[in-house]
């Protein structure tokens, strides 16, 4: 969502556009929290204070305080209208531009990771195995990797470790059995497709 301007010339321009947009498009903004006429009155009050502040340099401090208070009142009214307009139009840029405003940018949806690639087991020993692999080349950003195994001849995968990098040593595994290991990438959106399996007897 764009930010409301802070510099007075830009604030004046923004409020002018809001007033013009409300008056020109009552069908788009039928029930604003502050009407165009009311905002115009608030703005005119501010402008009178603004001119007073310019004309009375000797009394500038007090006049500027009043001017700033009036400006803040007008700004809050303008912001209420813009919040209303965003809700009324579902942040439709084509309609919000009538008020010199822009809608919210849609958030980029996180996708689940792709398939983990090229799993290998270059080293292993009694009850442990060292695995390395390559990150997915598609899908969403990987948060972590889950290492899984199943006993050869079964289909029941169990989780045996996690990793942040693309390698890990998995220890504490039962000895004397054949296991198939695989790795899957995970993030908040879900779980990617599993890697190839590697067979090992620990």
Automatic annotation (TrEMBL):
Pfam families: fn3 (PF00041). Gene3D superfamilies: Immunoglobulins (2.60.40.10). Residues 115-202 form the Fibronectin type-III domain. InterPro entries: FN3_dom, FN3_sf, Ig-like_fold. This is Fibronectin type III domain-containing protein. It comes from Candidatus Kentrum sp. DK.
